[in-house]
Task: structure prediction
Amino acid sequence: MKELAKKTKEAAIALGATSIEERNHALLCVAEALEKNKAAIFAANRVDLESAESLSAPLKKRLCFDEDKLTDIIKGLHALAKLPDPIGKIDLATELAEGLELYRVSCPIGLIGVIFESRPDAMVQISSLCLKSGNAVLLKGGSEALNTNRSLFVTMQNGLREAGIRPEVMGLLETREDVAQMLKMDEYIDLIIPRGSNEFVRYIMEHSHIPVLGHADGLCHVYVDAAADLSMAVRICVDSKAQNVAVCNAAETVLVHEKIAPAFLPELKAAMDLKGVELVGCPRTREIIACGKAADTDWETEYLDYKLSIRVADGLEDAIVHINSFGSGHTDSIVTADMDTARRFMTLVDSAGVYHNCSTRFADGFRYGFGAEVGVATGKLHARGPMGLEGLCTYKYKLFGSGQTVQDTVDGFVKYTHKPL
Amino acid sequence: MKELAKKTKEAAIALGATSIEERNHALLCVAEALEKNKAAIFAANRVDLESAESLSAPLKKRLCFDEDKLTDIIKGLHALAKLPDPIGKIDLATELAEGLELYRVSCPIGLIGVIFESRPDAMVQISSLCLKSGNAVLLKGGSEALNTNRSLFVTMQNGLREAGIRPEVMGLLETREDVAQMLKMDEYIDLIIPRGSNEFVRYIMEHSHIPVLGHADGLCHVYVDAAADLSMAVRICVDSKAQNVAVCNAAETVLVHEKIAPAFLPELKAAMDLKGVELVGCPRTREIIACGKAADTDWETEYLDYKLSIRVADGLEDAIVHINSFGSGHTDSIVTADMDTARRFMTLVDSAGVYHNCSTRFADGFRYGFGAEVGVATGKLHARGPMGLEGLCTYKYKLFGSGQTVQDTVDGFVKYTHKPL
Result:
């Protein structure tokens, strides 16, 4: 395992020096290799599916890798090859002194460890994003998909070889023991991205000193202000909760200003009933509509299901305190016609996404126009919110001189100019 | 302690909503308060100095807080008030669909824990950077400076009160027990910045799940290429090593291309002898010049002293592998007249600063033109290298809509445009 991490890290350095043409060509070669080897991949997937008899239907659907998924993946690789190079972007250029020029230039992070669940297509998606951004990657997929993952992995490595890229830029882990070891390898691994259940992500965060980007909870709120358009508020609440309940950007709690609650809550209940959403509410909510009683734990529960908690708030400040106390810093939306109220909400709510008059479900890399997504980060450092290729890059300072020393500046031979270039 | 962290975090949210005029005014009020209360501060400092009889002269000098230091600090506060607002900068603006606009806007990180050493002026410097960037701060200074720190802290809080800013945006910790507790408060504290010895910083990094920005080691290199101008190379090596040996951006190892070593090393030795720098070298170095024998541990030792290790390298790739293996990712410089070689070095060396033909000592926030510095980060996430006000900011995504739902996009009523604004 240590040997694998070391080799992959060495390959990472070399990959960081490749041109965008080489990396894009490699993406297309990977696409071609997948197409060519599809019979073997589908066969491997059938073995996995056969051993997965006991799994639920949705899980089996996630595990399945067929012609349709392959077509999507190949389309994705072609689209990715067309995106601009995230590496080598200059975002700061300063002349420090005559002939002494400072540039801040984006570059790959290095070696990234990714742990993901049963979907085998995630392996191709994640490793191609890493390839595009010049990062090497260690991958650990779900054990149910072991055969499919192996087949995809070998095929992708063949595509890289074809393109003249060292196949060691990808490494495959297969056991939990491997993962436990990976979490300790801060010498080689620069970043870990876990994708999976809350408990799983929290476990990773607590057991590694390597930086982790991602999210455990996605506890999103919609706050319906006194100045909200009622029908807009209902539509936004319904979409935020019920458009897809199983995702991190779905809302779990609706907060409603006390002034508008008597008019709004019956309408909300009617709409949620139609979608089959179970409601639990605070005492003031239950004075207005019939619904279950919300326990204290409801405010901190990510249902990921057809269930919604509702609380009547005294006003904006109360709603903000609630969100900052119980939210997960993912995405929170306000519905109001009052722009000042909206701005105050968006400044004071301490989340990666703060929305005005739209659904929390927009928090997504594709919808943000990033082309692709490696995950959504709810921490505050480095990347925040949906992470595209940019989230896989860092920067370095390049300083070009002509013999300058700091003593020269002390002696006055070199004078700081600090001019933007 | 938990109560203090909670109160400070609440104050942080409010501080994040203040205008730049309010924050700049507060900086000037703090400057005025310090000037007015200087007699009491100097008296407190005399108490600390009297109990510090046993300390070495340089440490006592760091501990001393006198008229000169106060003048510097007040000048610094006025300069800081003139810098542009780091908050509210928009670095991405996209129309996602008609009437649905996404902005990525810089904002404060929140509550920052800073642990620093004996210099009491560091307290004013750090907390004023936090104030300017809208962050609340918990401060723990060296115990030798306890009385001075208390006096400065109370004075600064008075300045804040004068300016109408809640004084709770600053909190003071006084015991090691407080620090141990702080490291566990990931619920409230967003970031820890430790400034101190390698062992101390490493301890912090290993004992907290809160993100830590800073550096333990500063193990910088100068690589003298075959195509180097000899006298330039000597000057850069001398400055990098000896201009100030006690700092993180001083060089600890010089690598020299085997072709130029016979001509270069005698000149380097002559210059280093003049500065009183002790040399230790690899076997090939010792065939050319008389010097001590470098042990394996020398390549990973940050001397912070008049001592330098020297190794003859087979060439560029060998030098890069050495730096990436033994360096600390801080700052490394190449001396060469060959621009292709320089570019390759700067791409492949995996450090926050990669320099061409200049001294490693330029790695510093003031020299980079950032106006001020909170520290130098050698990690790769969030801030890298010298951190100015920008390093104390994160961003949030603000999405302004007019009732859009994701279901609308599925149904085709809302179409993605993804146009830059």
The mean pLDDT of chain A is 93. The two ends of chain A are 46 Å apart (CA to CA).
